[in-house]
Amino acid sequence: MRLVVDNVNKTFINNNTEHKVLENINLNVGKGEFVSLLGPSGCGKTTLLTIMGGFQKSDKGSVLLDDKKVEKPGVERAFIFQNYALFPWKTIKENVLFPMKQQKVQKEERERRLESLLEMCDLKGKENMYPHQLSGGMKQRVAIIRALACDPQVLLMDEPLGAVDFKMRQNLQEELENIWTKNKITAVMVTHDVDEAVYMSDRVIVMSRNKGQILEDLKIDLQRPRNREISEYEDYKTRLTKILSKCYEE
Questions:
Q1: Of 62, 65, 144, 217, which has the highest C-beta tally within 10 A?
Q2: CA dist 205 to 49, 86, 153, Å?
């Protein structure tokens, strides 16, 4: 397995009151697999993702990447935030080049990767535009290719499409899936959207508000690109919706 979550526990203290967010969470993600963490607000999805990213430490248990313990952020794990997190004073080109310069990638290799990424995301010819000149969809594409610029082993995404409207969200899901299909990078995405989980994922992990307990680990056995109109697609959505409803009854 590429990514292993082994018996992870996390407790937060607020006003001298302990709140256990995650208790004994175990999860495996295979190489090249796209896994979504689905669940209601407060179920620990983002906490688990940030522990995978090395931004937070677990109180107990560990996260392993290729058998090596994750203890801090690293270039082998790229993180995409919901709000794009682009540098507003930098162009598309400068935003994408930035992480490669930080990692001291040689200039020729930087330029080669930049060309390839711009081509892949249909941003060729727009590389000198600034974030304020871009649509929400273009900003998200830039955030994605910036995350891919250092050739990470794992892509971690915290509701990356949560800030756009319904139609744009579907368009971006298709674009993100296309990018992922070309790269086959191991990916873990936090979402609260059932349709998005079914469309994007090889597996969907449904987490409960009860200490993040895993209610379901569902394999989505549908051909890519996904067809939202077929009955099997709707069957997966119905099944996940029923499981999610249990979370709100807790």
A1: 144
A2: 12, 29, 21
**What is residue 85's three-state secondary structure?**
coil
- Tokens, residue 157: 């995404």
Q: Report the chain's mean pLDDT, rounded to a whole number.
A: 90
Residues 6 or more apart from 170 whose CB is under 8 A from it? none
Distances from the Cα of 79 to the Cαs of 157, 242, 249, in angstroms? 6, 30, 32
Q: What is the dihedral of CA 84, 119, 185, 151, to 10 degrees?
A: -80
The sign of the CA dihedral 150, 153, 159, 165 is: positive
Between CA 146 and CA 148 the distance in angstroms is: 5
Name the helix (H) or strand (E) containing 186: strand 186-191
Q: pLDDT tens, 137-189?
A: 788 888 888 988 888 899 999 988 766 667 777 777 887 887 788 778 899 99
Burial label for 171, CB within 10 Å (0-12, 13-18, 19+), is middle
Spatial separation of the C-alpha atoms in residues 238 and 58, rounded to whole Å: 33
Distance between CA 190 and CA 46 in Å, rounded?
Answer: 7
Question: 202 is written with which tokens?
Answer: 């090889």
Phi, psi of 56 (to 5 degrees): -130, 155
What's 1-76+155-161+185-250's CATH class? Answer: alpha beta
Best CA proximity match to 202, nearest among 45, 46, 60, 31: 31
Does this model's pTM top 0.85?
yes
How far is CA 225 from its chain centroid? 18
CA 59 to chain centre: 23
105 by DSSP, 3-state: which? coil
For residue 72, the model assigns a pLDDT of 92
